[in-house]
């Protein structure tokens, strides 16, 4: 067989193999790389990064281009292999060698299959996956050119794909779900990329949008408020006693709010001798509901320059508590204490119906301070850590969780084999709103 007759075939075969490897490597690189990884190279190679990002934004379109190109070159490989097998067969027959044409074809097909599997699929894809950023930045310019050449075919198949998606009702899925992002954070902490505090902050940020006002509010029994008819000395006494920056002002009952007093406004008027009456210092009250997402409420409150919100019940007639911007911030960074707060390390009310409890407290004392009444009496001397051990039926571990009536109990910390701290949440509490006898003063309009 004349070598000059097969040299072009070998050359074409190698070129087609390289083209197929390029398509497979490019597909794998752009399916593995993320926008964040590409942005890390923006300072060094801004043009290549912008080009790669433009490909990533329309990846479905470019994926079709790659699939078309891959099928074309693979079909070319098969065609070249067939021609090569035919020439080999004729050459061997002309040389007087008895060989079956099917045998030659089978050998060439087997060789082509192995070559494509190794050099067009396995090796390029593994390399591209391990070096997705570098590969994506390198191949993006060629992919742009290829998409221009194959645009008519790509546009046709893209249209068919969209039509089928509409028929079957397919919806685009997010590239990274919240559950996957949470798992990434946990894996990053385990791998040492993030420390425990960073991991907790990121997890809190993920859960922030799912938190409702009912989870963080201060219940009405703990709300400090002023009566609109309070004297100057009564107001001053209340401010001194609480040291709060804002106080709700109501007309005889917390269910009849008329405004919010900024204590700094009162103190300025008091010290300057310009105080006349409380109604002149009030700011417009802001209202919300128990099921409102705190992410939306925070945005709205910040836009309206409100720091405190009064929370209405489902009927909208009664106030069940208050919530502040500080409560929202504590959902992200944890409990915030200032110099005026009295901190009880054994029992902390975290807002809403959440409590952080030490394992050293007794079960009865914990329930009493929570205001929770279990269906059956509990032992007054049983420690909360012992109770958790009994409920789990094994040695407790961090993040263990179980239900008990209306309570959800989560183990926060374990020392040795005993629970040192846990979090308890009361679900759907019954808020006791006292009924009051109406009187003339509470029903009267408050004049400016």
Written overview of the protein:
By secondary structure, the chain is of the alpha+beta class. Helices cover 53% and strands 14% of the residues. It has 16 helices and 13 strands. It has a five-stranded antiparallel sheet, with helices on one face. Strand 7 (308-312) and strand 8 form a beta hairpin. Helix 4 (59-94) runs antiparallel to helix 5 (101-130) and helix 8 packs antiparallel against helix 9 (196-208). The longest helix has 36 residues, at 59-94. The chain is elongated, with a radius of gyration of 36 Å.
Quick summary:
The chain has 448 residues and is α+β, with helices and mostly antiparallel strands.
Give me the secondary-structure topology.
Layout (H helix, E strand, L loop, with lengths): L2 H30 L2 H5 L6 H12 L1 H36 L6 H30 L1 H18 L1 H18 L9 H14 L4 H13 L9 E2 L6 E2 L4 H11 L3 E5 L6 E6 H10 L9 E2 L3 E3 L4 H10 L4 E5 L6 E6 H9 L13 E5 L2 E5 L4 H8 L13 H9 L8 E4 L2 E9 L2 E9 L13 H4 L5
Parallel strand pairs: 2-3, 6-7
Antiparallel strand pairs: 1-8, 3-4, 4-5, 7-8, 9-10, 10-13, 11-12, 12-13
Write down how many β-strands occur, each being a DSSP E stretch of 2 or more residues: 13
Backbone shape: elongated
Mean pLDDT: 81
- Class from helix and strand fractions: alpha+beta
**Largest sheet, order of strands side by side?**
9-10-13-12-11
Level of helix content?
40-55%
Strand content: 5-15%
What is the makeup of the main sheet? 5 strands, antiparallel
Give the H and E element order.
HHHHHHHHHEEHEEHEEHEEHEEHHEEEH
Low confidence ranges: 429-448
Task: Please compute the radius of gyration using only Cα atoms.
Answer: 36 Å
Cα separation of the termini: 109 Å
Alpha plus pi helix count = 16
């Amino acid at each position: 067989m004349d070598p000059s007759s097969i040299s072009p075939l070998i050359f074409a075969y190698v070129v087609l193999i390289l083209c197929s490897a390029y398509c497979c490597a490019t597909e794998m690189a752009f399916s593995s790389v993320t926008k964040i990884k590409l942005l890390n190279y923006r300072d060094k190679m801004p043009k290549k990064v912008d080009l790669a990002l433009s490909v990533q934004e329309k990846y479905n379109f470019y994926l079709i281009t790659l699939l078309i190109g891959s099928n074309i070159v693979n079909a070319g490989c098969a065609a070249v292999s067939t021609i090569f097998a035919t020439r080999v067969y004729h050459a061997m027959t002309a040389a007087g060698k008895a060989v079956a044409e099917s045998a030659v074809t089978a050998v060439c097909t087997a060789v082509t299959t192995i070559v494509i599997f190794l050099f067009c699929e396995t090796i390029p894809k593994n390399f591209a996956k391990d070096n997705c950023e570098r590969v994506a930045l390198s191949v993006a310019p060629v992919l742009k050119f290829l998409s221009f050449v194959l645009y008519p075919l790509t546009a046709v198949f893209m249209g068919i794909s969209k039509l089928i998606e509409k028929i079957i009702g397919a919806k685009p899925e997010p590239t990274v779900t919240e559950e996957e992002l949470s798992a990434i954070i946990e894996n990053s902490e385990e791998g040492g990329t993030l420390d425990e505090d960073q991991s907790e902050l990121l997890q809190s940020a993920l859960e922030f949008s799912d938190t409702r006002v009912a989870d963080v509010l201060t219940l009405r029994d703990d709300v400090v408020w002023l009566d609109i008819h309070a004297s100057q000395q009564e107001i001053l006494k209340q401010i001194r006693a609480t040291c709060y920056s804002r106080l709700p002002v109501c007309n005889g009952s917390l269910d009849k709010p008329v405004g919010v007093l900024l204590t700094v406004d009162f103190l300025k008027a008091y010290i300057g001798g310009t105080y006349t009456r409380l109604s002149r210092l009030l700011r417009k009250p802001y209202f919300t509901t128990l099921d409102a997402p705190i992410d939306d409420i925070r945005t709205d409150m910040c836009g309206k320059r409100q720091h405190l919100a009064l929370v209405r019940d489902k009927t909208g007639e009664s106030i069940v508590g208050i919530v502040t911007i500080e409560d929202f911030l504590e959902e992200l960074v944890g409990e915030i204490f200032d110099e005026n707060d009295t901190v009880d390390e054994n029992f902390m009310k975290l807002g809403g119906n959440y409590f952080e409890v030490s394992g050293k407290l007794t079960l009865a004392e914990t329930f009493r301070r929570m205001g929770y009444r279990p269906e059956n009496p509990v032992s007054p001397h049983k420690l909360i850590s012992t109770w958790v051990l009994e409920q789990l039926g094994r040695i407790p571990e961090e993040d263990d969780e179980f239900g008990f009536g209306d309570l959800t109990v989560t183990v926060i910390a374990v020392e040795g084999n005993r629970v040192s701290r846990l979090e308890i949440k009361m679900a759907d509490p019954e808020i006791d709103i006292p009924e009051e006898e109406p009187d003339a003063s509470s029903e009267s309009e408050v004049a400016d």
